[in-house]
Specification:
single chain; alpha+beta; three-stranded antiparallel β-sheet
């Protein structure tokens, strides 16, 4: 199991695990998950890490069909500026490999922002902490287990 799944089990949260055969040549891990699991892509979210001007790492959870609006994330986090984090720093802080970073069960608790489009869904899918492994849970459960807040941080 992964730290993300362990966290959900320990919290006795309602969730489902979905796995698929990951193709290392896949251009987009999130879109690959949607395709291989036969999911509506708008329900599959990717976990991205950004870095503020104060070197604070921020977690952004946005639909795989769009991209992260860094200005909107900075506004939500009440910082001046946010840029994409260095992949090595993201891996060190979360304990997960890029492409399999879960917003759940990270090594270090980082401020987390979930695109507000998630609130209209009954459930969403995020990485369970490994490429080829997704966890399905309610948006409110994701916010609760990450101490995350909803904000309009996604684009397109």
């Amino acid at each position: 199991m992964t730290p993300a799944i362990d966290l959900l089990k320990k919290a006795k949260s309602e969730f489902r695990i979905h796995s698929y055969e990951h193709d290392p040549k896949s251009a987009s891990y999130g879109l690959e998950a949607a395709e291989k699991l036969g999911l509506e892509p708008a329900r599959v979210f990717k976990t991205l890490l950004a870095c503020s001007e104060k070197n604070e790492l921020l977690v952004a959870v946005v639909p795989v069909t769009g991209s992260l609006d860094l200005k909107a994330l900075a506004h939500a986090a009440k910082v001046k500026k946010a840029d994409m984090a260095d992949p090595a720093a993201a891996q060190r802080a979360t304990g997960y490999l890029v492409g399999g970073i879960s917003p759940l069960g990270q090594k270090k608790r980082l401020r987390t922002f979930i695109d507000d489009s998630a609130q209209s869904l009954s459930s969403l899918f995020v990485s369970a902490g490994r490429r080829g492994l997704e966890v399905e849970l309610a948006p409110q459960a994701l916010a609760e287990h990450t101490a995350g807040s909803f904000a309009p941080i996604g684009r397109g």
